[in-house]
Amino acid sequence: MFGGRRKRKAAAKKTVSFGEALETSVVKKGANMAVLTTGSALVGDKGPSHMSVDIAETSDIEDGMEMLGSGDEADEETKASGKDSSVDQLEDRIKKKHAILTKRAQEGKVPKIVKGKHLYRPAASVMRMTEEEINGMRMRMQDIKVKGVECPAPVARWSQAGLPGNLLAVLDHMKWTKPTPIQSQALPVILSGRDMIGCAKTGSGKTLAFLVPMLRHILQQEPRRPGDGPHALVLAPTRELVCQIGIEFQRFESVLGLSHVCVYGGADVAYQIGDLKRGTDFVVATPGRMIDILTTNAGRVTNLQRCGYVCLDEADRMFDMGFEKQIKAILQALPPKRIMVMFSATFPRSMEGLARAVLHRPIEIVVGGRSIPAANVDQYVEMITTQEKLGRLVSLVQGALLNSPQKL
For the chain, which has fewer Cβ within 10 Å, the N-terminal or C-terminal residue? Predict the structure, then answer.
């Protein structure tokens, strides 16, 4: 009793925080129905309005669970105030640490983030292209339209983007012979250090369009030290999309010597906290769970001080699902000098104001028109049981990977 804190190995039931509950409630909106589409799947079932998750507590993560297990009292306070307490806590912590980070930066203790011209070395053939040749190339690539000043020319081959040999070797091994239209224009823009808005239909290769520049960015940075946060962050609206992006990253990480962590609700947060504490190069997360992680244990689980690359995938869906406040709070925790990109299958004009509020002089790339759902996507509705959901999802993903892995 008096010999120190006893390790608790039994699993304990804890109530998830507001951020995760919001995320889970959105995913579970369609009761007893699975909507299966090309490249993604949302599976819903009936569930109580107050979700709970089994979390295996061990001594090394107990302190990190205080926010995720705040209990009924915190829930009632959140309901009474009408605000997301996790978001408010993150905003308060950012304000308190701003002066400390500024002082560290002046003393040279915060590592410099390498970006922009240091990353992009276009091939000589690309640099010799005239404006007329560039416009003709964009026209042939599904009529690419760009908006913004000093937009780099598109590339026709991976080798023209100035990528390192080990990254080119993985692309060649995967039989990805040449970039798709959105990849051809997005790579030089992002590698040049520019913020970007990318709009292309489902199945056009948007995932690889932000993963390849992200990998190049990570490889250029200084090695991680103990306690350092990730070099890159991708936010996605659903756990299914988070896992899909993680699968794509796995194709590269063993060859390049990198690591990643998927952070999302509905899974054992203890393992996610453990992986983040050990350190990682890349985090892909849903906004609700990422807010929880950043506020857990007074922010000591991980930090975004070295995160110089940020991507909002399916950005329109995240804002439609009510994650605007969470996203803005997360962005406040990032360093001011960063590369930030938004990708989406549709990009309604109502999103432009929000996008330009968080992006700096962005270049907008539109492939095949904007705000138009892909005409070649068929939607199927299947009535399945809870036990059948995982197996059906796995079979769909495996089939898509075998048929056209480049377009995921």
Answer: N
> Taking Cα atoms as reference points, which of 156, 102, 9 lies closest to residue 336?
102
Q: Please name which of 373, 364, 353 lies closest in space to residue 144, comparing C-alpha atoms.
A: 364
Q: Is the pLDDT of residue 146 over 60?
A: yes
Say if domain 87-114+200-376 classifies as CATH 2.40.50.140. no
Longest CA–CA span in the chain (Å) reads 80
How do strand 196-199 and strand 363-366 relate by DSSP bridges? parallel
Residue among 86, 48, 20 at smallest CA distance from 265: 20
Q: How many residues does the chain have?
A: 408
Asked if 249 contacts 309 with a C-beta cutoff of 8 angstroms, the reply is no
Residue-wise pLDDT for 12-23, tens only, equals 444 344 344 444
* pLDDT higher than threshold 60 for residue 100: no
The SS3 call for residue 314 is coil
Among the listed residues 196, 217, 223, 239, the one whose alpha carbon sits nearest the alpha carbon of residue 389: 239
Distance of CA 205 to the CA centre of its chain: 15
CB of 186 closer than 8 Å to CB of 365 = yes
Q: Which pair of structure tokens corresponds to residue 134?
A: 């560039």
By the 10 Å C-beta count (0-12 exposed, 13-18 middle, 19+ buried), 205 is classed as buried
What residue spans of 321-380 are helical by DSSP H?
A: 324-332, 352-358
**pLDDT > 70 in the chain, percent:** 67
The tokens describing 238, both together, are 């659903």
DSSP state of 238: S
Give the model confidence (pLDDT) of 101-112 as tens digits.
455 444 444 455
Q: Distance between CA atoms of 3 and 1, rounded to whole angstroms? A: 6
155 close to 162: Cβ distance less than 8 angstroms: no
Q: Band the pLDDT of 348: cuts 50, 70, 90.
A: confident
DSSP β-ladder status, 52-56 and 11-15 = antiparallel
Encode burial over 101-114: b for 16+ CB neighbours within 10 A, e otherwise: eeeeeeeeeebebe
* CB-count burial class (<10 Å; 0-12, 13-18, 19+) for 320: middle
Pull the structure tokens for residue 46: 């009936």
Identify the bridge partners of residue 56 per DSSP, sorted by sequence position.
11
Domain ranges for the chain: 87-114+200-376
Q: Using an 8 Å Cβ cutoff, are 268 and 56 in contact? A: yes
The two three-digit tokens of residue 379, written as one number: 């939607």
pLDDT digits (tens, 9 = 90+) for 180-220: 999 999 999 999 999 999 998 888 899 999 999 999 999 99
Q: Is this model's pTM higher than 0.85 or not?
A: no
